[in-house]
Write a structure and sequence with these properties.
This protein has helices at residues 2-20, 28-33, 36-73, 79-104, 109-135, 160-167, 173-182, and strands at 22-26, 138-143. With 198 residues, the protein is mainly alpha-helical.
Length: 198
């Protein structure tokens, strides 16, 4: 009987305790799009990615040219020269694929560059969110950016502008700076940053 009374009391008090908790949400995509440093970092990543992509395309075009030349001359070549050319083409192809993995593979140079440029910005955003949560006694803050699980958020609980204000940025400021930094106003995304706790 005593256990049943305890369980019943806990069941009745849980909704009251849960409703007393404060919560809010942020949109990290919105916040990052309003930070000029983020737009500059994204532009820098795009430029580096394009440079590496052009380098790889040149290597693969050279391999393609070598292969086509080999196909045209193969019937005239003795077996030992055919084998030597095939090995040369295969070695160049391996080299190009290794370079591709080095630049764009998991943990590759692009990931390292993204981490180097984006992590300080993401850390500042996270710290601002944490500070707002502590100052306003929020039990939790949800990120509504790209989340399929968050179906509705009342705008009064969105503290994204407060995060920007705490960081010293104004909404829309980065869009003007990003257009100047890229030269054309169009930005090609390399990848979506993931907001993670440091």
């Amino acid at each position: 009987m005593k256990k049943l009374l305890i369980i019943l009391t806990v069941a009745l008090l849980l909704p009251v305790a849960a409703s007393a908790q404060k919560y809010a949400c942020v949109n990290t995509e919105y916040i990052l799009s309003n930070i000029p440093d983020y737009a500059r970092a994204q532009s820098q990543l795009n430029k580096q990615s394009e440079t590496w992509q052009k380098e790889l395309e040149a290597k693969f075009q050279e391999i393609d040219r070598l292969y086509k030349t080999y196909q045209q001359e193969a019937y005239l070549l003795p077996e030992n020269l055919k084998h030597k050319r095939q090995e040369e083409i295969a070695a160049k192809e391996r080299e190009a694929r290794e370079l591709q993995t080095k630049y764009f593979g998991p943990g590759g140079d692009l990931d390292k560059k993204r981490q180097e440029l984006m992590k300080p910005i993401q850390d500042r955003v996270y710290n601002a969110i944490e500070r707002i949560a502590n100052e306003k006694s929020y039990a939790f803050i949800l990120d509504k950016a790209g989340s399929a699980t968050l179906l509705y958020v009342n705008a009064k609980y969105d503290v994204s502008d407060q995060v920007l204000d705490l960081l010293g940025f104004k909404p829309g400021a980065a869009k003007a700076d990003g257009a100047e930094a890229s030269g054309s106003g169009k930005k090609k995304e390399v990848g979506n940053p993931e907001m993670k706790r440091p």
